[in-house]
Amino acid sequence: MSDGEASLRARVIAISQALDAAGLVPNKSGNVSCRSARGFLITPSGIPYRDLTPGHLAELAVDGEPATAGPRPSSEWRMHAAIYAVRPDAAAIVHTHSPRATALASAGRGIPPFHYMIALAGGDVRCTGYATFGTAELAETAVRGLEGRRAVLLGNHGVIALGGSLDEAHAVALEVENLAGEYLAMLSAGLEPRLLDDEELARVIGKFADYGRLKR
Ligand SMILES: [Zn+2]
Q1: Phi, psi torsion values for 100, nearest 5 degrees
Q2: Cα(156) to centroid of ligand 1, in Å?
Q3: How far does residue 58's CA lie from ligand 1's centre (Å)?
Q4: pLDDT tens sequence across 156-209
Q5: Is 65 a catalytic residue?
Q6: CATH, residue 68
Q7: Three-class SS of residue 9?
């Protein structure tokens, strides 16, 4: 294993365990992946996050074939493979069942652009229809919902976030949960958010790109 790959594996595990500690991947849900020399590395199926070691990560080619013999990949590997196949800007993907975002996703609600931090997601966060976990249908649904965005709410399921690095995908996933909490707070107070217009959103996306917060 190269130094580069060893550090990628370590980072996938660190982010998975941080998501777990923050309660964003309850009951072994969710998964984390990043591009690798042969395709992508992804967290395995059925192993508690706290017990993960670098050797537990599965490596798949983007067509879904195992790149190396080894652990069983997360049941959501199809969703990751489908995204990597069409999104050259995705170097890493974080999938969570983070509670506030999943609450919105279970009501079929996306997140409107009421706060400028939504620029991390590339604009408003859509909510897709429902598709069964682990299916090609869910993979296609996720890809469509992500068009022009770095995050999407998967209907009645959870969140997908992507980024130009593992840390960026992690940051997008955390921000989606944060925005979902703010949106839920407004809804439960009976308040309607005041939305940013497209021009302002484009301006903030440009500013984030200048700061290097986003790789375009
Ligand atoms: Zn899931």
Answers
A1: -75, -45
A2: 10
A3: 17
A4: 999 999 999 999 999 999 999 999 999 999 999 999 999 999 999 999 999 988
A5: no
A6: 3.40.225.10
A7: helix
